[in-house]
Amino acid sequence: MTRGGMKEYLDAIRDRYIHGDRKEKSRLLDEALQVTSLHRKALIRALRTPPRLTAGGKAGRPKRYGLEAATALKTLWEASDRVCAKRLQPFLPELLGALERHGELVLEQEVRDQVCAISAATIDRLLRTYRLPELRRPFSTTRPGTLLKAAIPIRTFTEWNEHQPCFLEIDLVAHCGESTEGQYLNTLSAVDIATGWVACRGVLGKGQQRVGGAIHHIGQNLSFSQRVIDSDNGSEFINHHLYAFCHQKGITFTPPDPTGRMSMSASSRRTGR
Fold first, then answer.
1. Fewest Cβ atoms closer than 10 Å to its Cβ: which of 18, 46, 60, 241?
2. CA–CA–CA angle 99, 79, 108 (5° rounding)
């Protein structure tokens, strides 16, 4: 017997059991024991307990966050580039205020208070349906360049000294939306470790000559000499064109380790630890 059928059967005989005499109760218990296979004591407890009266819907605590709060939370999550809940939750009031100032969100005070007080666990629960794998698959535009990994030395002309200017971290940021098909604009970003100076140049595509030309253009506008370049392992950086340029200019070119992972020293420079 299914749980639903068992409940219907006990509901049907409960009234007769409660109002019956001792003999009638014993007969009903014997019958229920054969039908449900439950323990006699369990049957007595079930028949003595009246059915729980509900107004409909699921049992448990009522929902605290309605559709308006969930929709506002999704907008905030999208504005933060779908950051994880634990990183998003501390900045919800600040991010919400910024969107309100620019007219992107208009919330009632009650809904606003709910969104600002929401916990990280509840954020994960409310955003679960939007995080289905088929909605968005993360991707990377970096394709490892392996031909020169063994040829490019990790240290050529100098050692890392991040306390002096001229040690540049470079990377490409792709502006391709949800697809990497076709041509799209990239931003070459260069950051000086010591001073925090940042330079950006637009690059159409990821061609070696275009990326190398953008690096050369950044170097021409530096107020100090370019001495070290640290990149990822993408083929737009690990190539003969950039290798020859760095060798000609006396610039140390420091690609990642052979496994493609960033070294511990590079990691500490980028995170400040």
1. 60
2. 40
